[in-house]
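Pasting as-is:
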Amino acid sequence: MENRVIVKEFSIDSLDDRKKNVRVILPIGYNDSTKKYPVLYMHDGQNLVDKAFYSGSSWEVMRTMDEFHQQKKDMIIVGMDCDEKKRILEYSPFVTKEVIKYMRRIPVPENEIRAEADLYADFIINQVKPYVDGEFRTKKDRDNTFIAGSSCGGMISIYLGIKHQDLFSIIGAFSPAYWCLRKKMNEFLESVEMKFPLKVYHDMGTKENRLFSFKYMVLQKEFHNIICRRIGSENVMMRVGKGDLHNEFAWAKRFPEFYAYCFSK
């Protein structure tokens, strides 16, 4: 049987040799082909195929990949596992009072609370991408390199996709955790120079917190207005998941539309 999930453990140079698994998920027929493929880099890689501990669901990315195979829309998906204790720090470009409050509950020592997003980016750009491009048949250019994630993984996708727009051309942000970085992220979005064409998909469920998520919808609209102003509304897709909660089941349901968006002109 074809092995379509390759797992490799890395020591992260930029994060004091912190260990992390990276999962390379290959399309159907990869080993029987000579084709080169676009690459989508995703966070929380442990939940892309396997079921998440808290929700009991996964992103079902292989199911989506297989559905699009018949349309000749194949890609390689690379998932970086999250760190069990420092996930929020790895995905945070800024330290806010909300981040500090959350990390104290885990708990993480005060002297270890820092914004690690740029260090995490160094890992993706200087370790993961060279490995993937060197070991697998990839289309290496920015037009065929995408980034996506959910919750805080959605926020880091927005941040890295825009800061490193020379490397990524499409961003997918599922249920982004605007609540923890709102002001700092908005300041970043307003100030950063847009040098390259960029496409952004973002969404939110109407019941992210199991109730009607009015605050989440307000923050989504706020982001939508800013990003449309910066890159043009024609380059932005916003979706609302009616009745959707904040979990992998909901993201799996919305993932196919983003997958198709990656192949749209």
